[in-house]
Write a structure and sequence with these properties.
Distance between the termini: 47 Å
Strand content: 15-25%
Number of strands: 13
Strand order of the largest sheet: 3-2-1-4-5-6-11
Largest sheet: 7 strands, parallel
Length: 265
């Protein structure tokens, strides 16, 4: 509460699955002002509709919504000049691994340059804290998306080491249940279409947590961080993706590999 109450907060990627839940949780702590940034117009409109209805309960919170591309530093700086946030939550990113393999330019443009822009401006406008939302795919990265996030992590840590005005904290977590592009909505759609349900490999495992859990841990890491840390969240026990596919098919009232096929590719 001390961390967020009465503060000016900025969230990038605010219309995404993680960003929008962060916004909901931040609003509970009655910040003075909440600035939400995203480049996805329709998703930001949906968030604006939801938040403006919720915010009727507390008219004292100033909320604003802005369509911006974080890779454009000049356009981003306009907002920092106006709102001078105390805390910045940086959730904006391109995160889909196969698409970023096909388009590494945009992975670097948004995930690296966009993060550099946002972090530089947080420091320039004397934010108290910058919380960068990263991924477990940044650990010994084997793909473009993970490598771009690792580069961004290194830059954020280097900024922290150079000064003591703004605390830069990084959080990493794995797969978030129900987030945009995650495996659960994909399996659900495949089951609704009659299959097949596609699994990368029969032995592959993943760690999962829910969106509210992930966002609560982001806020907790923000309160704990002294600057320079990378917080890795405890994700519980791993889940075998093929087991998940079997369970989802059965919960939908079908028999795996009889009513609905499971394909490994």
């Amino acid at each position: 509460n001390e961390y967020l109450n009465g503060k000016k907060i900025m969230v990038t990627g605010a219309a995404g699955s993680i960003g929008s839940e962060l916004v909901r949780q931040i609003l509970r702590f009655d910040p003075e002002e909440l600035t939400m940034i995203d480049q996805a117009e329709s998703a930001l409109y949906d968030l604006e509709t939801e938040i403006c209805r919720l915010s009727i309960k507390n008219q004292s919170i100033k909320v604003s919504f802005h369509i911006r591309d974080i890779s454009s530093k000049q356009r981003l700086e306009e907002l920092f000049q106006i709102y001078t946030p105390h805390v910045v939550f940086h959730a904006a990113a391109y995160k889909h691994v196969p698409l970023m393999e096909q388009d590494p330019f945009n992975a670097v443009k948004v995930n690296v340059q966009g993060t550099m822009n946002t972090a530089d401006l947080a420091l320039k406008y004397l934010a108290n804290q910058f919380v960068f939302i990263s991924t477990d795919k940044a650990v010994n990265p084997t793909n473009v998306m993970g490598a771009s996030k690792r580069l961004a992590e290194k830059y954020v840590q280097s900024l922290n080491a150079q000064q003591n005005t703004t605390r830069f904290v990084t959080t990493r977590f794995g797969n978030v249940l129900g987030s945009n592009g995650s495996v659960i909505p994909l399996f659900k759609k495949q089951i609704e279409m009659g299959g097949p349900v596609t699994v990368t490999h029969k032995d592959i495992i993943r760690y999962f947590m829910t969106i509210p859990e992930a966002c609560q841990l982001v806020l907790e890491a923000g309160t704990m961080g002294k600057g320079g840390e990378i917080y890795v969240f405890e994700m519980g026990e791993p889940v075998r993706i093929s087991d998940l596919a079997h369970r989802m098919i059965r919960l939908s009232g079908f028999e795996p590999n009889k009513d609905i096929q499971i394909e490994y590719n």
